[in-house]
Structures are given as C-alpha cells and as structure tokens.
Write a structure and sequence with these properties.
single chain; mainly beta; 55% strand; globular
Amino acid sequence: MRLRLLILFCVFSLQGLAQNYSYTSVSNDLFENGGVEIYGEGGINSTTFTGSFFAGLLDGTHYDNQTLRSITDRAGATNRLGFDTHTGFSTAFKLNKKNNDNLLFTLSAGFKTHFNSSYSADALDVFLKGNAAFAGREAQFDNLHATYLEYSQVKAGLHKKTASGQRFGVAIGLNLGRSMFTIDSPFARMYTHSIGNALRFNVLAEADYTSHSGESASGINGIGAGLDFYFEQEINLSGDPKNKGFLRFEVQDFGFITFNQNTKNTVMDTLYFYRGSDVGTFPNRRGEEIALLDIGDARDLATKTASNVSKTVWLPFWLRVRGYQDFDSFDVTAGTDFRVNAGFAPYVFTHVRKHIGKAWKAGIITGAGGYGTGNLGFSLHFENAGWALGIISQNVEGVVFSNSAGGLHGGISIQKRFSK
C-alpha cells in the first residue's frame, strides 16, 4: 500500500522521452523536387530530475544521498518534467514539374507519445526521500498535474512557393488515439503522524484515463483531427545573393482527439486515513527502490469511483518562429518555441553549423526553457548525391553533467531527394 498511495500523487512524472525539435511540415531541401524522409526522435527533460537519475531508472542503480540531494536542490515552488517521442516518415511530390509551378503535395504518417507533469517541492521530496522528514506536519502536493498521450497521425498537405520567394502551406491530419491519462489536483495534502503509525490524505482531484492500447483488438480508443500551417519569407542577411535565408512562422500539431465511451473518469474529494504497522514511510525502509512504475497501478486506486465517459483532449501544439541564414562557411538558425497545453516554458535557441568540405556540416546548439533550464547540443549532417543523413542531440548536458543537469535527447533522419 505504501508505494501505491504515493503513485497517485507524483509518480506520473516518471512514465518516461522532451522537445520535438527538427521535423516541420516540409523541409526546404525537399521543396524543389520532392523526396522521402524517415525519422525518429526522443527526449526527456526536467527542472529537477537529473541525467544520473534517468540512467538509474534504466539500469536499476541504487540512488545515493548525493544523487537525491542534487535533485531536491534544483526544486522550486513549481517544477516541470516532460518527454516526447516521434517516429515516422514523410514524402513530397511536385504536382506539375513541366510548368515548374512550385506546388508540392506531402503525405506523412507517424506515432507519438507525450508526457508532461508539474509538481511541488514537497511532492518531489517525499517521492525521493520518504516522508520521515514530515513527521508531525503536512506535506503539500497542491497543483499537481500530469498528462500522458499515445497517438498515431496521418497528414496530407499542400505547399506553395511564390515567385517573390514566399512559401506557405497547410496540412490536415487524422489523429488516432491509443492511450491517455490526465490528472489535475488543485489541492492534495499528506499528514504523517509524529510517531509514524498513521497517514492522512486530503485530496481534491479529477482523473481521466483509457485502458492500455494493447487491451483492445485495434489499439485505437479515440479519433480526432489536426492542422499544421506556416508562412515563410526569403531573406538574405549575408550580402551574397547566392546564400539562402528565410524567416518562418509555424503552427504544428494543432488538433484534438475524442476518446470513446470506454474512457474512465473519477473525481476525488475525499479524506483518506490509514493506521497500523503497514503505514510506514515512502519509499519503505526495507530497501524498496524508486523504479519506473506502470500508470495502471495509479489508475487502480481510483477505479472504484470511476464512470464511463467520452473525453475530448486538445493536443499539445507548437507555435514556432525560425530564422535561418546561410553564409560562405557556416549557417545559423535561431528561433523560439511556445507549446500550448503542455506545461512548457517558452524555449529560445541558436544552432550554428560549420561547413566541412562539400558534404559535411557540424553544429552546436544552445538554448534555454522548455521542460528544463539551459541546454547544450550538437548536430551532424551529411549530404551527397541526393541523399542526406542528419543526427542531432538537443541535450548532451544530461550526459556530460549528469549529476547536475537533466536533459537527454536524440534524433536521426534519413532523406532522399528526387531528381529533376
């Protein structure tokens, strides 16, 4: 019972990959003649949890006091954790090559997972170190929020480039929801008796959740629609007319999923009280380690009061601004990302790539915001004979400075451009 009770309040932060970085509606490289691209990306970041903590979840490492202290020292009044994964492919076709009218059709499909959570310093402290320090007083878990989504997407789009260098496009998508879990708890408190033989939970919360996607034959529990659109203007700040540049405004993943009547809803406005020798502390004193826990464990705590509903969830979507300029021996991209419905702080970044010969580009990324604080990353790009390979990590600080930073991210794309 000890660990299962705590799951309800704060373990949703650990359902583990955070900033979808590089895959837009259609890349400039594919626009001229079309092509095919496959890609995969995943990342996790937090204002509190560190790279060494995430690594420990994977290999079962026991956490020492220094690791736990480095996490709690990073905590503020409100804290964030988020992850995203995205795998898929896209293809682009020139609709009228003979007239060279720069009209492009795109088709893409992919699978995404998303998680975001906000939690208090007390919730983090109790989860990591147990509630012994709160004996005789109340731990405050107010304003806890968590959202988890698994869904597939199929998108079709039209894109146009004008003679004056403007480019714009729109893509309409079909969203197929597989799994969903949300919880909002504006008020949640835990009181531990001074001698540790009783616990009291005072909870106001609402949760919605689906069954696991694998429990149904199709794995589809919801359906919805989505929209991407962007506008781009050519610019050139280099002084050399052969160098390319642009300024782009983009909205990506604006949409919703309506989950079916098998979705569960539960509202908790209750005082829970537990007494006896099995109450103990969180985690227990007999060596029960922190681990990745199944979201289903938390759902089980609320099933007695759950009712069937149909639930519409608005997807977390991106508002993006990008500026790009090519120079003789390097290029620069700078931008900012806002993410709505995602507990995401505004993110700003710069990405500078050095040209190495005719085929290679190596880049450094710096940024701040999102689900973490600051970030440092790298990229490597190879291009030859219509083929391109890109490797990117937006966050390497969670590996290099694993005891004090939390970001981990990686992505890869392979692209083949069609010939004229």
